[in-house]
Design a protein that fits this description.
Helices cover about 70% and strands about 0% of the residues. It is built from five helices and no strands. It has a single domain, classed as DNA polymerase, domain 1. The protein is mainly α.
């Protein structure tokens, strides 16, 4: 799979059924995704496998991730929207 196909798949996975998630995830793709290390790229892919409501709760800070290694990534996603 080439980089364009990966980018298109990632953009598609960031399109959600909830406008707020679309805004957060699309903003992060524009403003923060490129700076992720390999571990956080994998964590981001894992986040995208969540259902919309739990993902929204994680991103809004209403729920804490079971794995604390996700906390910096969640903060980076939140910050990316503020820089739009």
């Amino acid at each position: 799979m080439n980089q364009v196909e990966i980018d298109n798949r990632l953009r598609w996975k960031c399109r959600r059924g909830m406008l707020e998630l679309d805004i957060l995830l699309q903003g992060f793709l524009r403003n923060g995704y490129a700076a992720l290390d390999e571990d956080d790229v994998l964590r981001f892919a894992q986040l995208l496998d969540y259902e919309d409501n739990p993902l929204f709760d994680l991103l809004m800070g209403h729920m804490q991730p079971a794995d604390r290694a996700f906390a910096p990534l969640l903060q980076a996603i939140r910050r990316s929207v503020r820089s739009d």
